[in-house]
Amino acid sequence: MSELLNRIRRKSLHDRIRKVEEVIPLFKHGMNLGWSGFTPAGYPKAIPIALADYVEKNQLQGKMRFNLFIGASVGVETEDRWASLDMIDRRWPYQTGKNIQAGINEGRIRMGDKHLSMFAQDLGYGFYTKDNGGRLDIGIIECSAITEDGGLVLTASCGAVPEIVQIADRIIIEINTSIPNYEGLHDIIDPVNPPNRLPYLLSRVDDRAGSPYVRIDTDKIVAIVESQYPDNGRAFSEQDNTSEAIANNILDFFQFEVKEGRLPKNLLPLQSGVGSIANAVIGGLAKGPFSGLKVWTEVLQDTMLDLFDSGKLDFASTVSLSFSVDGFKRFYGNWEKYSNKVIMRPLSIANHPEPIRRLGCIAMNTPVEFDIYAHANSTLVGGTRMINGIGGSGDFLRNAYLSIMHTPSARPSKTDPTGITCVVPHVPHVDHTEHDLDVLVTEQGLADLRGLDPKSRAKLIIDKCAHPDYKPLLREYLEIATKECMARKAGHEPQLLDRVFKMQVNLAKNGTMKIANWDI
Description:
The chain is of the alpha/beta class. The chain folds into two domains: 226 residues, Glutaconate Coenzyme A-transferase, CATH 3.40.1080; 227 residues, Glutaconate Coenzyme A-transferase. The chain is built from 18 helices and 25 strands. Helix 8 packs across helix 9. It is globular.
């Protein structure tokens, strides 16, 4: 208790300290809830776990359901367990976990997908809670401290906290005493709605434009509970030969762009998604020729610590410290070394198009698949089954100096080791359009699409990126489609609507995208 009291420096709030079981009666079926958190970092744990225990113990599955609004996904021990107990009605805008994905695809959970920067501001506008006067009933925020002025010192992420605390009628604070006080690591700009919004004064990755804490009306705080649950952490994605080959293609491209004068020697601020390819790219940079690097991104993974240790990364701006459990131990064990090189910002700032474009970010993200004209699908397998959501990839890809998408050229199906081509005639769901992407990369090669017309793009993507098992089929499709469309003077971007998804249909029926021919 003494550590908890030390963390709450506004002494007038000490009388709002409660045991976690005392706050359970505040939650009612059908409420709109906002949580802190972004990836498995900085999310509330004590109260969501206690609520799940309460529902399970009292057999209230399906009788205590909530609408859940969070900056992105959080730990599976919270939202995914809630899904297993039928505690989620609506979930915005991004999620992770087998149970919650099953609930969405079975129609039990209503999910909406949205670019993360737009989600944060639209939540603040009240667009998602119009039936509740644009308000959230309760916001649950994990903090590492509360200042003398009542400012909230967040933990390992910022997410959409500034918007949540503005529109929440009541706020419950979880003070996590199992982790260090994060004071000084955040840069928070209070959300202001149009027409009164001011420019964000950010011209460098390490600029500060706001406050190190979240300003809040402390009268809204109805309870403060202690948490000693560590962040669950994101499992480290191991590199493989394919991801390393993709990374090498990207690094070779960077060197060429420097040589041609289109990139400075220290590149431009880097944004990198999550997964084995992202890890391989960052790992390659740690060993590569570039120094004086800066990062403007959403998540820092364990390999970013390697990049710091290499001496080649000077500074990183992020929304979340998305480390593994061991990565958090490493960060906390070297707090002085890392903490003065990192700043965390809310979604509405980190993912905002204006600073991304001004800084000239290099965006790198992994899709499910892309097509021969450079449309990409990041969210829906087969065009219908939701995986996680678009996240912030679109925020970056549409506004970056260089927009790069990377994926293996093929993936295994249940019966064929290269049964799924990730380069298709047309993606069944478009998250990123041809207008937004500059460079596509697989382990086969890299296609620089800048300045190319659609048919030239298609030839280059097939030649450079497609797996050898599929190159003949894709070339044949392009030839047939071009001939037929040009004959009817509709050949700018040739497609055959009666055959364009033949590969996907064959996968569903026969377990592979390898078809015999393009006959109808």
